[in-house]
Amino acid sequence: MLNVNDISVAYGQSEALHGVSFQARKNETVAIMGRNGMGKTTLFKSLMGILPLKAGRIEVDGQDISRDESYRRVAKGIAYVPQGRMIFPTLSVEENIHTGLENSATRRVPDEIYALFPVLWEMRRRKGGNLSGGQQQQLAIARALVTDPKVLLLDEPTEGIQPSIIKDIAKALNEIHKMREITIIVSEQVLSFAMDVADRLFVIEGGRLVHEVAREQTDTAHIKSYLSV
């Protein structure tokens, strides 16, 4: 469903990603683990078209999106929940979700979205800026899901969120898999969360993928050695 082939990204003369390649199958969740500054957000911005590729190729469901602008990538099936969530604080919860329905035929929020995130139904008239960090994260995921994506990118979804809400988000992502055949790519530093949701884990270090393992074969101590400062 997602094929990333030998992509490189540079900030001016400084190369940030060095020949990154990986694949993610339909209905698979992949976690990209790594410390701050190792290239996770750069990778996600390049997948979404916010940062241009210096080299390499990205395909979604067999379609080359490597040179497409972000809005074209959304139309071809990518949705992105950025680090920091980026919801609209002055819009209501419902209005925030509706911003993801630009290209929808019905312009209606599917019932399953509120079933996944009941708190959003309860707070649908409340302004997004009045929600807690965890509720804003759920709102950002809901807004991405209404675009009916084939691939969902989540950049550091647990950042600044209390443990009980992290569990809720993990549960929701696993429910999404049961309801839709969607590929999820999540960047993460919290190993317990990655182990709850991911089928495979990668480690990124210095802009390169340096480790890959299936969840059931994961040596958590080995992964933690990459994540510790």
The dominant shape is: globular
Low-confidence stretches: none
| Spatial order of strands in the largest sheet | 6-7-8-3-9-10
Secondary-structure arrangement, i.e. CATH architecture: 3-Layer(aba) Sandwich
Instruction: State the distance separating the first and last CA atoms.
Output: 34 Å
Structure, described:
It is globular and about 45 Å long. The chain has one domain: P-loop containing nucleotide triphosphate hydrolases (Rossmann fold, 3-Layer(aba) Sandwich). With 229 residues, the protein is of the alpha/beta class.
Task: Kindly summarize this structure in a few lines.
This protein has 229 residues and is α/β, with parallel strands linked by helices.
List the helices and strands and how they pair.
Elements: E1 2-11, E2 14-24, E3 29-33, H1 40-48, E4 55-60, E5 63-64, H2 70-75, E6 78-81, H3 93-98, H4 111-116, H5 118-122, H6 133-145, E7 151-155, H7 163-179, E8 183-188, H8 191-197, E9 200-205, E10 208-214, H9 220-227
Parallel strand pairs: 3-8, 3-9, 6-7, 7-8
Antiparallel strand pairs: 1-2, 1-4, 4-5, 9-10
Keywords:
six-stranded mixed beta sheet, alpha/beta, globular
